[in-house]
Prior knowledge:
Mean pLDDT: 84
Pfam families: MscL
CATH class: Mainly Alpha
Number of helices: 4
Distance between the termini: 55 Å
Strand order of the largest sheet: 1-2
Order of helices and strands: HHEEHH
Helix content: over 70%
Structural class: mainly alpha
Membrane topology: Multi-pass membrane protein
Subcellular location: Cell inner membrane; Cell membrane
Keywords: Cell inner membrane, Cell membrane, Ion channel, Ion transport, Membrane, Transmembrane, Transmembrane helix, Transport
Largest sheet: 2 strands, antiparallel
Radius of gyration: 29 Å
Function: Channel that opens in response to stretch forces in the membrane lipid bilayer. May participate in the regulation of osmotic pressure changes within the cell.
Amino acid sequence: MSLWQEFKTFAMRGNVIDLAVGVVIGGAFGKIVSSLVDQVIMPPIGWLTGGIDFSQLKWVLKPADDTDPAHKTAEVAIQYGAFINTLIQFLIIAAAVFLLVKAVNRLTHRQEKAAPVPADVALLTEIRDLLKQRS
Length: 135
């Protein structure tokens, strides 16, 4: 089998396609959560804390210097407000994934219970039980 054929076989497996779909949907879900945090959750929190815009909070280590146009230096700052927003986004995504996995596990557990026993397994179980009664 050639390298190309092996790659094609690998790439067309169901798991690889499922993973690709999951990554694409995950990226879109991340954008939705970012919008939810930045535009829905953080404004009321900022309002409750006296108008603080968390995304603009920073600790300036070295201010920008634009006094000399030939040697401008950018501001050096730790932007902890953006980190707070990212942390909230992570918590929302983690909670959503947890609830999704919990729901899927509940559904698969129900399907396992409701699945009919195959005829050959039922027959083997019956034979086993009869043999136990003989002994």
